[in-house]
Amino acid sequence: MTVSPLPYPLRLTGDGxxxxxxxxxxxxxxxALLDEPDIARWTxxxxxxxxxxxxxxxxxxxxxxxxxxxxxxxxxxxxxRPLGEVLLFNVRxxxxxxxxxxxxxLPFRRRGLASAALSLLTAFAMDNLRLRRLLLRIDRGNTxxxxxxxxxxxxxxxxxxxxxxxxxGPVHLDTWEYVExxxxxxxxxxRNVASRRYGRR
Length: 201
Ligand SMILES: CC(C)(COP(=O)(O)OP(=O)(O)OC[C@H]1O[C@@H](n2cnc3c(N)ncnc32)[C@H](O)[C@@H]1OP(=O)(O)O)[C@@H](O)C(=O)NCCC(=O)NCCS
Known about the structure:
- The chain is an alpha+beta fold and 201 residues long.
- The protein has one domain: Gcn5-related N-acetyltransferase (GNAT) (Aminopeptidase, 3-Layer(aba) Sandwich).
- Helix content is 35%, strand content 28%.
- The protein is built from 6 helices and 9 strands.
- The chain has helices at 27-34, 37-43, 51-66, 113-128, 143-151, 183-197, and strands at 11-14, 17-21, 71-76, 84-92, 97-104, 133-139, 155-156, 162-166, 169-179.
- Strands 1, 2, 3, 4, 5, 6, 7, 8 and 9 form a 9-stranded mixed beta sheet that branches.
- α1 crosses α3.
- The chain is globular, with a radius of gyration of 16 Å.
- Bound molecules: coenzyme A.
- Coenzyme A is lined by residues 38-39, 42-43, 101-104, 109-115, 138, 142-145, 147-148, 151, 201.
């Protein structure tokens, strides 16, 4: 199997969560999740994030899934209401690399959802898509996101920061990497899953 086109539809289950495809009827929940300052600040999504932005977002997600260029999944606990999103994009098949991203709605944070979703999609990408290096781009001031990355076995990569301008001024995106076979990444992923499973969070 090659990494292009990416598989569709997808449903990934494990670690107390279900990752599923976005649906048109998620529009109101999507707008409620993404119309939030931290999401605008750290993910550079449109702000305010209104129904029009939501429709454009769902259309783009749908297109990306049908043409196989992206994986964009709603984070749920049971396949129902979306609580956040995890995605895989910018696939470079020649280098066996892709980028991942995630966000969780404000009321649903600090429950381990982002860590569970990133762990699940990381495992799927490494085990099923023949990817060898997965990347995250995280602003150095985004403590929540760097904690999630570290928890899931990602480590800072030796790459220069990417400068961008967001609604709250300049952002400096550091690259974090998850590399196939590196012992500490495997151990972290296992620990992350185990701590969740045995309720030690
Ligand atoms: C980053 C984000 C996705 C984290 O989602 P989450 O579901 O709350 O993350 P988790 O519950 O899996 O947190 C894992 C660990 O990260 C750390 N963490 C999470 N939020 C934190 C915060 N606000 N401050 C400090 N540490 C934090 C904690 O160590 C946490 O473990 P613990 O609270 O159980 O001890 C969420 O805050 C978010 O959507 N932020 C806005 C969008 C964004 O920044 N996306 C990432 C762009 S690179």
